[in-house]
């Protein structure tokens, strides 16, 4: 049997990959007694006030895949295993011990004993079984429960997870934010709608109030089994205007602002009371190409546009020099990343020749869709100028987020920026994004790209337990991707966090999933 030592090895490899691959540099209230709690002075140190850049629509993990909603949800509930937001290492959370069968079809899990939900109910294997088997029916969990058969209860604290086929990434799947363990008895008592109104969990914080569109107030769980926060109250404020968020931080009204764009870095540097944290995220931003539409069904056109992008300029202008350029959507935190894999060469002359060969000696007209924020609009302006140099007239169409996504799902576009997140820090996410089984609304392959050999290799790597063999599969997949150029790789966006200089334990989280209980005064 393989024991926890295996996970330590995996964690070490993940940390190594990071070190080598990436340089960090209101609406109505839902509850009673929920008057907004004003932030206390940072000198009192009993409250931490954090700003996130968007509203939270739900605190139920199976209602949303929004990263900022999940950011809050994960302060209330816990998974069996957790992926570190700092270095990507995998460690036990509610799972205290585990043993994996050689074929990866079973995993014996022993839970932490004495853990309680915030209503006082004990956490047991009944909660694990109910949650994970219910997850099989949840759309947001479909990627994580393939081949998962269910949970066999041994006793209150021991159970066996079972799969029909082994999967080398199952712990990373079950560490996802839609796979947190929920309270079975409480949900049976109040119903799913009742839980959505007042969610509880075993996490480091307990929900006190939620003023929609304004703030969420959480009290510290003083009995948290992994160690409680050093302050009493966590306030999550939702401010989508970056200037307003920064002004609140400068005025001492808040203590942390998440996800400011690099354009604010110089302003922050001039304030001795603030500190800028930055790292490359695992959010891949790239240009999808509708492979089924002429002229983009011609690989020469796709390659010409790809090699006409000046990626150094893209990084300097759109990312403020941060983030990480990449030749594909495998993140620098993944074991399949290699520093030896080169970026597409910038070669405008060769691009012009390819366009001529494809029947466009005088260039062509194209439309590139993007949305405000998320680096897409400034990146579009760089690409637009680059393509003009090879005779391509690019119209940049700025769209509302959901409208753009819906167009891409329907395939009714030519070229468009897309973002995928390597949430498990493994090349499997990139594989799915280019697999024809995940076309349109079925997944992230909105290029409608199909290569049967790529699909075959992707299916093999998902269940391959030999790391060396998995690497071989991925190397061949990379070459196919390079030859076919189904889309145009961009960059892993910067992730930032600006904090009060007196705060300790702060960092820029690679996936925006912060452990706020780690912050202290």
UniProtKB/TrEMBL annotation:
Positions of transmembrane segments: none
Presence of the UniProt keyword Transport in the record: yes
Principal location: other
CDD domains assigned to the protein according to its UniProt record, in alphabetical order: PBP2_NikA_DppA_OppA_like
MF terms (GO), sorted A to Z: peptide transmembrane transporter activity
PROSITE patterns reported in the protein's UniProt record: PROKAR_LIPOPROTEIN
Any one of the GO BP annotations: peptide transport
Coiled coil: none
Family annotation (InterPro entries): Peptide/Ni-bd, SBP_5, SBP_5_dom
Family: Belongs to the bacterial solute-binding protein 5 family.
Protein name listed in UniProt: ABC transporter substrate-binding protein
């Amino acid at each position: 049997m393989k024991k926890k030592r295996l996970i330590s090895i995996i964690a070490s490899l993940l940390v190594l990959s990071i070190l080598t691959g990436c340089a960090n540099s209101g609406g109505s209230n839902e509850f009673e007694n929920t008057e907004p709690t004003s932030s206390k002075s940072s000198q009192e140190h009993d409250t931490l006030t954090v700003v996130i850049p968007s509203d939270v629509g739900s605190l139920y993990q199976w209602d949303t895949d929004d990263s900022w909603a999940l950011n809050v949800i994960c302060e209330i509930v816990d998974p069996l295993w957790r992926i570190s937001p700092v270095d990507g290492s995998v460690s036990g959370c509610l799972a205290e011990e585990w043993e994996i069968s050689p074929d990866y079809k079973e995993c014996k899990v022993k839970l932490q004993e004495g853990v309680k939900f915030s209503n006082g109910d004990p956490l047991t294997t009944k909660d694990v079984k109910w949650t994970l088997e219910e997850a099989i029916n949840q759309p947001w969990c479909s990627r994580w429960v393939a081949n998962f058969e269910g949970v066999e209860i041994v006793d209150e604290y021991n159970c066996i997870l079972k799969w029909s086929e082994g999967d080398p990434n199952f712990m990373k799947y079950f560490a996802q934010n839609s796979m947190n363990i929920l309270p079975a008895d409480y949900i049976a008592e109040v119903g799913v709608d009742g839980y959505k109104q007042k969610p509880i969990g075993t996490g480091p914080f307990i929900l006190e109030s939620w003023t929609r569109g304004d703030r969420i107030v959480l009290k510290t769980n003083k009995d948290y089994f992994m160690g409680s926060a050093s302050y009493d109250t966590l306030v999550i404020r939702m401010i989508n205007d970056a200037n307003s968020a920064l002004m609140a931080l400068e005025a001492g009204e808040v203590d942390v602002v998440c996800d400011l764009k690099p354009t604010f870095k110089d302003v922050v540097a001039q304030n001795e009371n603030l500190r800028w944290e930055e790292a490359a995220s695992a959010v891949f931003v790239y240009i999808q190409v509708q492979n089924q539409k002429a002229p983009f069904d011609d690989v020469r056109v796709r390659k010409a546009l790809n090699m006409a992008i000046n990626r150094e300029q893209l990084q300097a202008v759109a990312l403020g020099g941060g983030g990480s350029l990449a030749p594909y959507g495998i993140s620098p935190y993944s074991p399949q990343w290699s520093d030896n894999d080169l970026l597409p060469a910038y070669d405008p002359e060769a691009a012009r020749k390819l366009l001529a060969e494809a029947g466009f000696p005088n260039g062509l007209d194209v439309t590139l869709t993007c949305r405000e924020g998320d680096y897409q609009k400034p990146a579009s302006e760089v690409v637009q100028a680059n393509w003009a140099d090879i005779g391509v007239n690019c119209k940049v169409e700025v769209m509302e987020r959901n409208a753009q996504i819906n167009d891409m799902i329907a395939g009714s576009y030519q070229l468009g920026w897309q973002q995928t997140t390597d949430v498990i820090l493994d090349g499997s996410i990139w594989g799915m994004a280019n697999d024809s089984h995940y076309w349109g609304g079925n997944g992230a392959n909105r290029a409608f790209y199909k290569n049967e050999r790529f699909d075959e290799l992707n299916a093999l790597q998902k269940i391959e337990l030999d790391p060396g063999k998995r690497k071989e599969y991925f190397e061949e997949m990379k070459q196919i991707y390079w030859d076919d150029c189904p889309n145009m790789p961009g960059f892993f966006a910067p992730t930032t966090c600006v904090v009060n200089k007196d705060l300790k334990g702060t960092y820029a989280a690679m996936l925006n999933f912060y452990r706020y209980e780690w912050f202290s005064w």
